[in-house]
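RECORD TYPE: inverse folding
INPUT: structure tokens
STRUCTURE:
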């Protein structure tokens, strides 16, 4: 019938040039009656016409009455009683043809359904007839129903609504040229990733300095290198290690993948009914051929870390299940392949962490190259602010970058402060009703700072003055160096040899030991017995000194107080002191130098053994390696020999 209708429509244009319009309409009407007769049968068509009061009209010689009869028959509506005009007939015939086409389509679908139902009934018992019919209907209609389609429409409507992009999306670096203050780290990252033999990598550094962005950009660069193993569509799969958890039942493991056994909720119904376990591939397989980036990799569950190490070694993920039977003929081939050969997981791991290297799994560290991102200097923060202002196309007061750099050392935080100030400036302009370009003022920035309760990151600032009994030591916490303000006062003891030494306990026992070491060194190099003085040593703010690094600074502060000799306030000292006056090596020199630069220090004395830890391209600060405290004294008091023993 479909073929007949199509042929009927196709011939309409072919005969249009051979007959008059009325003859052509008569032929169409006659053809439609023939089509109805083939659909319903001649006898049923006559009965249908009788019920719809169309029998007399159908036998008429007038085309108008015959068309009216067609309307009654096709639309099953006896209320049609208005004879159409000749001009209206073509449109009516077109609608009749469409209705007949729909009828043929429905009858075809019904025939297919009946055929399938019949096949199912042969296979199963008649008691399941109703279930089989519903199953066939579902197979033809799909899983959708009115409720699911309504929810889909709601979701699509929600997807059509979008707010403006967030500031972080707009201001995220799009190239390495926009990654400020990490030139050496970026160079090391590219050397290890964009090569014919890329390495697994761990990125260390404080938060907000660009580790994630640099990793993403490095993969894009690697894709463009001719000898790179990364394809143009190599994936970059990013996940946070703090959100990954390991389920001992192995039914939930988004990182490595898991197995949904038939008894567990979540297994596919057709597999569960036949007792076949279903593997679910994880992120390591999603990252196959590309990079798996795990932020805060140090927070990853220890058991999960061990399993990840196995994947790095095998470059595949293997699954196991007590329900898997390799001889079961119902097991799909892809499931059999996964269980027997494992799922591919050949990727490069890039982990980022704010933890110290000693806190990372040693086995994981041994498989990875290590790159350290540097803390951002005030100058780097200012460059980031200027770059972000350019992307926002906004003007700002000249002092804005410098002010923001005083309150954070994180690039992400600096951009957030600028974005908040931008919001204030934009709101102020809208309230004023102006259309001028937005200007971020100093007042906008300070309002954001006050609202967010921010405090200056560097509380101790160097100066060109000199003070007695006061010096700057250097400390480090994580990857951030800082200046430690140490002050000392000394008074002659009421009774010779009965003096006391006071020291704030909150600074730690190791720092207290440094005080007594300093007393011995002072007596050795000057001949002064410190027991003749009442000495009070104070670490301003009670900052805790966990490592042996403040001994030299404490000794200089005590000696300055006893001898009443002022110390320059634009220098800093790090290093532990032995009782023989030697300056011993300490850790964290790299971070301490950056902390000193942020405080405006011009000159740092470090142990000679630490000279290898000094950045080779360091600018704006003088590093002086020393082996003994006498070397320091000669440099800070070159004209005064009274501080040394005769």
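DESIGNED SEQUENCE:
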């Amino acid at each position: 019938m479909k073929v007949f209708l199509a042929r009927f429509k196709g011939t309409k244009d072919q005969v249009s040039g051979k007959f008059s319009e009325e003859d052509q309409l008569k032929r169409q009407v006659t053809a439609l009656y023939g089509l109805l007769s083939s659909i319903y049968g001649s006898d049923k068509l006559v009965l249908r016409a009788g019920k719809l009061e169309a029998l007399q009209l159908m036998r008429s010689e007038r085309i108008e009455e015959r068309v009216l009869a067609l309307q009654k028959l096709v639309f099953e509506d006896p209320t049609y009683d208005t004879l159409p005009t000749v001009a209206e007939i073509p449109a009516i015939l077109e609608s009749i043809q469409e209705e007949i086409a729909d009828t043929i389509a429905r009858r075809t679908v019904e025939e297919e359904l009946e055929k399938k139902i019949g096949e199912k009934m042969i296979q199963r018992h008649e008691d399941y007839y109703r279930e089989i019919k519903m199953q066939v209907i579902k197979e033809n209609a799909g899983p959708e129903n009115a409720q699911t389609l309504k929810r889909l429409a709601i979701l699509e409507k929600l997807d059509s609504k979008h707010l403006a992009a967030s500031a972080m999306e707009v201001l995220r670096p799009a190239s390495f040229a926009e990654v400020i203050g990490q030139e050496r780290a970026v160079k090391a990252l590219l050397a290890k990733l964009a090569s014919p033999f890329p390495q697994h990598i761990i990125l260390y550094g404080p938060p907000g300095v660009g580790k994630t962005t640099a990793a993403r950009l490095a993969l894009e660069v690697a894709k463009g290198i001719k000898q790179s193993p990364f394809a143009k569509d190599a994936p970059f799969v990013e996940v946070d290690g703090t959100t990954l958890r390991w389920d001992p039942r192995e039914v939930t493991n988004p990182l490595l993948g898991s197995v949904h056994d038939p008894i567990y909720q979540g297994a596919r119904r057709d597999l569960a009914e036949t007792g076949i376990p279903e593997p679910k591939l994880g992120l390591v397989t999603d990252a196959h051929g590309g990079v798996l980036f795990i932020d805060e990799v140090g927070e990853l569950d220890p058991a999960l870390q061990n399993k990840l190490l196995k994947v790095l070694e095998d470059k595949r993920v293997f699954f196991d299940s007590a329900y898997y039977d390799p001889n079961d003929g119902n097991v799909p081939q892809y499931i059999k392949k996964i269980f027997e050969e494992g799922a591919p997981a050949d990727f490069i791991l890039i982990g980022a962490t704010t933890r110290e290297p000693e806190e990372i799994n040693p086995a994981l560290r041994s498989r990875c190259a290590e790159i350290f991102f540097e803390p951002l200097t005030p100058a780097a923060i200012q460059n980031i602010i200027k770059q972000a202002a350019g992307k926002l196309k906004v003007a700002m007061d000249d002092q804005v970058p410098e002010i923001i750099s005083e309150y954070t050392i994180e690039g992400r935080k600096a951009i957030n402060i600028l974005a908040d100030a931008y919001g204030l400036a934009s709101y102020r302009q809208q309230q004023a009703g102006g259309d001028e370009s937005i200007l971020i003022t100093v007042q906008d920035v300070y309002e954001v700072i006050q609202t967010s309760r921010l405090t200056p990151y560097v509380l101790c600032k160097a100066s060109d003055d000199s003070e007695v009994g006061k010096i700057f030591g250097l400390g480090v916490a994580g990857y951030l160096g800082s200046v430690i303000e140490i002050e000392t006062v000394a008074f002659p003891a009421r009774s010779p040899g009965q003096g006391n030494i006071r020291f704030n306990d909150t600074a730690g026992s190791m720092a207290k030991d440094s005080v007594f070491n300093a007393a011995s060194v002072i007596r050795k190099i000057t001949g002064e017995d410190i027991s003749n003085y009442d000495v009070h040593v104070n670490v301003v703010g009670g900052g805790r000194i966990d490592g042996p690094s403040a001994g030299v600074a404490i000794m200089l502060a005590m000696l300055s107080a006893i001898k009443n000799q002022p110390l320059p306030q634009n220098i800093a000292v790090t290093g532990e002191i032995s009782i023989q006056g030697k300056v011993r090596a300490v850790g964290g020199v790299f971070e301490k130098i950056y902390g000193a630069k942020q405080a405006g220090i011009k000159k740092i004395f470090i142990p000679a053994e630490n000279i290898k830890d000094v950045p080779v391209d360091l600018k704006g600060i003088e590093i002086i390696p020393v082996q003994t405290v006498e070397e320091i004294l000669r440099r800070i008091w070159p004209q005064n020999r009274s501080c040394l023993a005769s």
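NOTES: Residues 17 and 71 are 27 Å apart (CA to CA).
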